[in-house]
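Hi, here's the filled form for the chain we discussed.

Project: internal
Contact: R.S.
Residues: 426
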Amino acid sequence: MRILVYPHDLGIGGSQLNAVELAAAVQRLGHEVIVFGRPGPLNQRIEELGLEFIPSPEPHRRPTPSVVKALVRVARERKIDIIHGYEWPPALESLIASRRSPGTAAVATVMSMAVAPFIPKSMPILVGTQEILTAEQEFGRTLAALLEPPVDLDANNPSLDVAEQEFRGKWGLDPAAYTVVLVTRLAKELKLEGILAAIDCTGMLSQELPIQLVIAGDGPARRLVENHARAVNAARGRPVIVLTGELEDPRAAYAVADVALGMGGSALRAMAFAKPLIVQGEKGFWEVLTPDSLPLFLEQGWYGVGPGTQDGPGRLAQLLRGLLLDESCRKTLGSFGLSTVQGRFSLTRGALVLENFYSLASEAAGEVSIVQEAGALARFVEYELARRLRGVLGSSPADDFNSRPVAWRRQAGPELEAGTTRQASP
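And the returned structure, exactly as it came back:
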């Protein structure tokens, strides 16, 4: 097959890194794979993996006509079988382009915590958790499947030399202190609550334990995080919170951790380095990965929703205290995490899932539902009108399909879920 992979951008992030690494893994299965998109930091990874890259026109209002036109041109010239768009804007642009390219099918992958309701039900779609898959099947998706975020175990494993000592020296880490690591995007939706809770928790624990928290990442909430970290460091009189900014290669950060915090793909990469993991969520959710908690994460993804935000730092402090003071437990749980990733989340397994799904999508390519696509268009118009209104009112979230995750809605109860599951955002 000839496949055109279109990530939503090529900055450092979980969905787009998955897109690029899976593209290379599918290419290794014998297919011709091209990556299409706006140039960014991940272009270096694309080159390392031996993938061809075609730059996209600059997108503006989505879907962008010039991007669709470029996709159509590539699909026709290169006789593309599958255009694979990651997240909703590339998904819609890929679908429109496929309609104008005979013999080409479109596939979507959504790794956000909820799926945009205006992606037509007839478009083949892959999602990252069983819980979201169930919700999409209930919504009436014609062809939907599970693609759990994979990990490149050749590039992420405990035996690698990733220059840990150089990393410690560069960031002034205390070799005698316990090191807790959080590799994350500094986003207001989904992430910020947990990041601030981790900072507060470290400030509390530093009064009784030698501890330092390393936060690796960047994003729109950077100033809020910096101010919070600065206040805690000032109160403690030493740098217990270390902010590295975005790291093109965060593997050394995972490697130096005594305990890792995280959600989604970041959590899985920490597990690949055999680190004990505390999964981050929202509304005060923190939970250690153990054999008992694993079924929860396999169902709803590496994320959770707690009872409220007020005791998030206290809950995390309780869990960290227990892990940091028990080296044997840390080693056991780290080994368990590594074996879990090796058995279920390998890049090779993900590529085989994709290969099979591409075949199913190609077979179903002629099954177009005008009614379903008209309904999707109506939902998109509703979304755009609501988004513009929120923009005028100053209440529009930067990432609205992570602002009301499926797990959050389902926990909130049937009445709230029925009223919000298929709306763009609160």
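Let me know if anything looks off before we file it.
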